[in-house]
Amino acid sequence: MTPSLNFKLFFDILFLVEDFQKKAILETLLFVAGEPAEVGIIMKATEMHESEIKRLMNELMSDYKEKNSGILIAEIAEGYQMVTNPDFAIWVKKFKNINRATRLSQSAFETLAIVAYKQPITRLEVDQLRGVNSDGVVKGLVDKRLIKITGKRKTPGRPFLYSTTKGFLRYLGLKDLGDLPPISDFLNEGTT
After folding, report:
1. Which of 16, 173, 180, 192 is buried deepest, with most CB atoms within 10 A?
2. Long-range CB contact pairs, 20-27, < 8 A, 24+
3. Which domains, ranges and CATH numbers included, belong to the chain?
4. What is this structure's pTM?
């Protein structure tokens, strides 16, 4: 190999590595954006030139299309966005219907927070803290496996004690209960 050929190969490889990293950066930005990312904003974030961004985005769009991936990159509203592949729309629809069933109402979130911070706790204690009857909400949280019965209070009537589950941790993306913000953070919000 001649020296000039070695330099050319070196720069070709360097160019490919740079492009690979730049594509990874663009993918990351599109993933976290959640809405079409305009080229101007991408330029400010990456310090890449507009022509380079457009070239790399076109390559990424082709890459995703060739893989027949569940995700595509689309040009939308003068920007770029990660979108689901329409070929898999039936699965997205099924998932959204299941996911909708796991959304929580405001009263369910309140009850869940009370159980998380005061566990183990009885339904009556939850009612007293909320100031309303929580029968239906507690049942719904048990049905969704976010809380469970963990025993009975040793008082007259032996009411059930409720605590959170591993499903609760997964739902909120927590490693363990120690990851919950201190309750004082919420108490201080109400007084400021």
Report:
1. 180
2. 22/46, 22/48, 22/52, 22/56, 23/56, 23/59, 23/60, 23/63, 26/53, 26/56, 26/57, 26/60, 26/80, 27/60, 27/73, 27/82
3. 3-87 (1.10.10.10), 102-191 (1.10.10.10)
4. 0.50
